[in-house]
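Case 275 in the screening queue. Each case pairs one protein sequence with one candidate compound; here the compound is hypoxanthine. For every case the pipeline is the same: read the inputs, emit a complex structure as tokens, and attach any notable structural observations.

Predict complex for case 275.
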Amino acid sequence: MAKSDQLQKLNEAAQFIRSKTALKPQVGLVLGSGLGSFVEKMQVEVSLPFHEIPHFGSVSVEGHRGQLIFGTVSGVPVIAQQGRLHYYEGHSIDSVIFPVRLMGHLGVETLILTNSAGGLGDGMRPGDFMVIEDHINLTGNNPLIGANIKELGPRFPDMSEAYDRQLLGKMAQVFQKMNIALHKGVYAGVLGPSYETPAEVRFLKQIGCSAVGMSTVFETIAANHMGMKVAGLSCITNLAAGLSSQKLNHQEVTDTAKRVEMTFGQALSNFVSEI
Ligand code: HPA
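Case 275 output:
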């Protein structure tokens, strides 16, 4: 996707969506691997499979369904992206951030990014939750490389509060009310799809990261570029490589996400109603 026609593609996708729904979403959610049950808390108005939306990529990873769902939660109009596009699947970086840009284009002001992540922090256990305070982008890439689309945002966007502090405080309150422990920490964004080596995991701990995952950072950058406020919530699906006696596998990641999916969905819907 050439940068020059990105804006036109966003316009075409937005036009298609406006022909399907008059909903004006305020909040956008990206639901990570096996973490889609938030949708059950929605009054759904319309669900659009990715393949029907102009210029959308299609998803391939197990545990990811590809649809954009429009509706309300406690009266708040939302879009939920069930299933995301990952760079490791071979999608272009433009395709990875296209849904987030589209949400911004449709008027979304608050973006909630969720993901599965490997836990690095002391005392973390599979099934725990972590609110993302900040990230370190270790992918060696950036979705804003190339000509800047000035209609979307500035050439050099500020990232000093990439994850909005007020939203972070609200997330902490929601978990406190639900009596569920919530870790706070820095998310390390890596490319994948291979999991980390134990040496990489030691490095990530040393540079101050508490969780590691293969998504989110590009979307956070694209959302900040457009001036959206971002909240990030990780489900710690496993301890990162070398921190437990077990080898890592995708099955463990999806099994843990499934186990806590209902709680995760409830917390997200409580959060949306507080925004
Ligand atoms: N590493 C990277 N990405 C992940 C992990 C992990 O351990 N678990 C879930 N996503």
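Case 275 observations:
- The helical segments are 3-20, 93-105, 165-177, 198-206, 217-225, 250-274.
- The mean pLDDT is 93.
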